[in-house]
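Action item from last week, closing it out:
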Amino acid sequence: MSEDAPESEEEINRRHAEKAAKRKAARDRMLATKTEERGLIILHTGTGKGKSTAAFGLVLRCLGHGMRVGIVQFVKGAWSTGERTVLSRFPDLVTMRAMGEGFTWETQDRARDIAAARAAWALAKAMIADPGYRLVLLDELNIVLRYDYLPVEEVVTALRSKPRDLHVVVTGRNAKPELIEIADLVTEMRLVKHPFRAGVKAQAGIEF
């Protein structure tokens, strides 16, 4: 075949198959070295939307495998959300607790916020220590740490000493460096564009 002649479909398919085989062989070699299985500390942070959404995706994945899940929401109050409605249908597998009224943005009652954060953290520690759970979601924990409502050293110590098979997911903006350091998986979601800036309010099915 001359240099200027176009490749035949058969030749293109042959080269594609060769490249695919090489990629598969390389991937198989890499996967053969990944033999450890253990619980992970997973951190979702950043300014972009989707941190809690992704975490609840992991919750649903665990439920699909029949795993028990514990959820503590540190900021969100007791208002109705789609995820809470769905997960309430799995009482044998899911324990979900909100810290109550959420943060006191209007009253600026710092003492009350700290007390609520401490109560939520006490529940979170009990879930982490419970061998019946396979995943514990600490939703918006980063927020209370950002405002120093909980000592980050205490949180780090508890996460370091979690049961070996337990997965712990932490969400919220402005993750503390200490949490990033001990996490096995860190995802930073970056804001590119958000409808709120164009005057669109929070909507059912998207934000809650």
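Closing note: The radius of gyration is 22 Å.
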